[in-house]
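Z., the sequence and structure:
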Amino acid sequence: MKKVPNIFDKKKIRLNHYRSYLSEDNRVKKFFSLVSANLVSKISDLSLSFDKGLEIGTRNFFLRNLLIKENIVKSLYHTSSNNKLLKKITYSIETNIDLIPFKDNSFNLCISLLSLHTVDDLPGLLIQIKKCLKTGGVFLAAIPGGSSLNLLKKIFIEQELIKYEKIHPRFIPMSDLKDIGSLISKVGFKNTVVDKDLFIIKNKNTLELMKDIRESGESNSLLNRSKNFISKELIYNIDREYKYKVKKNHSMIETELEIFYLMAFK
């Protein structure tokens, strides 16, 4: 069997998720709340209720609270790398996102809120999810899409090449809509549906945008990331270029964030 390369720093992911869990930033809370509501609405459209569900890679209580409020799941279990969060939940296991330590055919619903994009072996995780679902069970997840932060990524590359004549791995790789849908079907799920939302994030400047990324728990978690701080000169040049390209007709800079919603059945 071909060994899956390690791409992500699991310790950094834990720190990222813990930071977003503690964040009091209203913009971050609103974003997680909106995506949670969108996920729950997709379950509501099915007019189904579930005896036993699993939230994979729990980062906060937004999705859990909605699922309970809407009476969608009778018993809800959780996996998370955040032991502080798990102490407040009855049915929970502390583990990395890419491990589901439950028996086969355990759940009617497996759901995840913005956690599956930092997994080394996504096909392997999807196979685990399929195994732990009962026949007819539902898999539902939200993940960032491949076009998220495209302009910021492009400007980072341009400015690093100017300053250093090389680029550093600063952004995690993300899937496009077609690839992620094909992958879900390939591991054996049925009736796969993948759709997307496009969020427009408004900030005063690039520094505020980067702060939002950090507060939401999405700072760079690549194993081969540069451990050095970004220089003030580079940040200034990125901000100047970003404002030039985006702020021509706006009082604030605008950034596109693409979210994919994945749904499939066993």
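The longest helix spans residues 26-44. Residues 243 and 253 are 6 Å apart (CA to CA).

Let me know what you think.
H.
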